[in-house]
Amino acid sequence: MKTFHCDKCGQQVFFENVRCENCGGMLGYQPEHRAISTFEPAGEGVWRSLNPANAGLLYKQCINYAREDVCNWMLAADAPDALCASCQLTHIIPALSSEKNRLYWKRLEAAKRRLLYSLWDLHLQPTPKRDDPDTGLAFEFLEDMPDKRVMTGHANGLITLNIAEADPAHRERTREQMGEPYRTLLGHFRHESGHYYFDRLIVGTEWVEPYRALFGDEREDYGEALQRHYRNGAPPDWEQRYISSYASSHPWEDWAETWAHYLHMVDTLDTAYACGMMLKPKKPDEPALRIEEHPVRSNAFDDIIREWFALTYVLNSLNRSVGMPDPYPFTLSTPVIDKLRFVHEVVRGMSPAS
What's the pTM? Predict the structure, then answer.
């Protein structure tokens, strides 16, 4: 995530902000510029941009910004849609009969926007399913009912999330029950997007055979594979071959877990790069960090993985110093690194290795 500043006073602001705490300027995200911009009122629900890139042009708030307070994205004032590019992707929201559901919806939308920021940055902007029913993307946020439990998952471009995942207490209980080192809303969005982009980037392309050589044959019966995984657990040596125990259940899940981890890496490195973060150890054989190039634009995967090892070393060390768990509780084996490299090559559009 890049750093942002108020166009009115220069104060640093953040991706989720709706107002500058220094000058009070109204803020909004412009996905076409990947920028948080400052706006001044221009009358009748229209706002004038103060961003030098489009200063003076008129915009309107997404209706979920103006009325519902669950968004902070903007549209051109004459745009035919009332919903922004992010909210257009959400087809079903929770029933807003309770404040709890409204809070969960707000958290879900915030995590989804983080995912979309990364996808835009990687030139992987999804087409809304309403515009392309066959290959488009849509989200639905549902809650459990007495007679029906909602399963988080993906099917034919529709990503479903159980809104209970927006409850930190529920998520932590589930994480412990599943024996997972890491479980976040953003992680769910990244994982499920991996299934969507498998269909878009791998199926029916020249990447299929290189994918199968690394991940396995996705034609294996998925239902049987999951039943076996939940019955028997992951193989004892899963850490030597997979990014997570769940990745060992089926080649589709291995891809989705690896895809999610790749997004996790490049977005975190992007933030470190934008902040000018450096690590200059006193001894030359200790991890060093100097990110010379925007990670999302880099073709050099070896540089990315080297920088990632250095960054996670310092992140874990800092957390331990304040008595907190490691924010990066993963070990990357050589086979896992090879899979991450493959995801990088697919995203960058490189030809598969012969």
Answer: 0.92
